[in-house]
Amino acid sequence: MLIAITRGVSAGIAACELTHLERQAIDLERARAQHRAYEETLARAGCRVESLPALDELPDSVFVEDVAVVLDEIAIVMRPGAESRRPEASHIAPVLAAYRRVTFIQAPGTLDGGDVLKLGRRIFVGQSGRSNESGIEQLRAVAWPYGYTVTSVPMSGCLHLKSAITEVAPGVVLVNPAWVTAAAFGDVRALEIDPDEPYAANGLLAGGRLVYPEAFPRTGKRLEAAGIPIEPVDVSELQKAEGAVTCCSLVFAGV
Ligand code: CIR
């Protein structure tokens, strides 16, 4: 059984962190409706969705991916790179404790889950503005006893590694080559996004289905032509907060 942890959209999302986007008005009710539809898509993909209540004082708290990395063996609670997001960590830790032993990234380390791409036993971490060397080293120290390698990867032009590359089918990644080099990920088949859709590299593989934003029809066609059907979702309001589809859930095997 797959578990998907989500959190409702904060009433304060208008004050979200923005790095590469201009601030635009976010329609809260629409964002919440889109988020509910996203949760329903995950449920249809076979996940048991544990939907946590919104935290109105924490604007970016809907983006639960950034506050933890859940391996089969252990959960690692992040210390987010953006100071405004650090309090999110203490809200996720007790939730994860029901499923895994929990450990924490400690200061001076910073790490955002959005920078962590796991491909089997290989974990890649983007050298973004949010994740530093100490955070990456701490992740390596936790994960290597379980047989994972942790490799830090140069990237540029986007917020998180998973803005630039995600796994869209077993052994297949979708990449924006302007932001990261697929060669850094070793033995994978790489599909490129349509260059007119720079934010299109973020898809969420859950229960063998690819949850994918409606906003990127050209790249969506490329995926389907490559034999990868998509489950389309409209996350346009969350995209204004620099989020996409992986960021809104933590998906892992239940116990
Ligand atoms: C932030 O800047 O932290 C949020 N506004 C967006 C986080 C999106 N998360 C992700 O890509 N993993």
SSE layout and pairing:
Elements: E1 2-7, H1 28-44, E2 47-52, E3 68-70, E4 75-77, H2 88-96, E5 102-104, E6 116-119, E7 122-126, H3 133-143, E8 149-153, H4 161-164, E9 165-169, E10 172-175, E11 189-192, E12 204-206, E13 209-213, H5 217-225, E14 230-233, H6 236-239, E15 250-253
Parallel strand pairs: 1-2, 4-5, 7-8, 10-11, 13-14
Antiparallel strand pairs: 1-15, 3-4, 6-7, 9-10, 12-13
The structure holds citrulline (CIR).
Please provide a written account of the structure.
- By secondary structure, this protein is an alpha/beta fold.
- The chain has 6 helices and 15 strands.
- The protein has helices spanning 28-44, 88-96, 133-143, 161-164, 217-225, 236-239, and strands at residues 2-7, 47-52, 68-70, 75-77, 102-104, 116-119, 122-126, 149-153, 165-169, 172-175, 189-192, 204-206, 209-213, 230-233, 250-253.
- The chain has a 3-stranded mixed sheet with strand order 2-1-15, with helices on one face. A 3-stranded mixed sheet has the order 3-4-5, covered by helices on one side. The chain has a 3-stranded mixed sheet with strand order 6-7-8, with helices on one face.
- A hairpin with a 2-residue loop joins strand 6 (116-119) and strand 7 (122-126).
- It is globular and about 40 Å long.
- The relative contact order is 0.18.
- The structure holds citrulline (CIR).
- Citrulline (CIR) is lined by residues 16-17, 19, 60, 63, 65-66, 82, 85, 114, 159-160, 162-163, 241-244, 247.
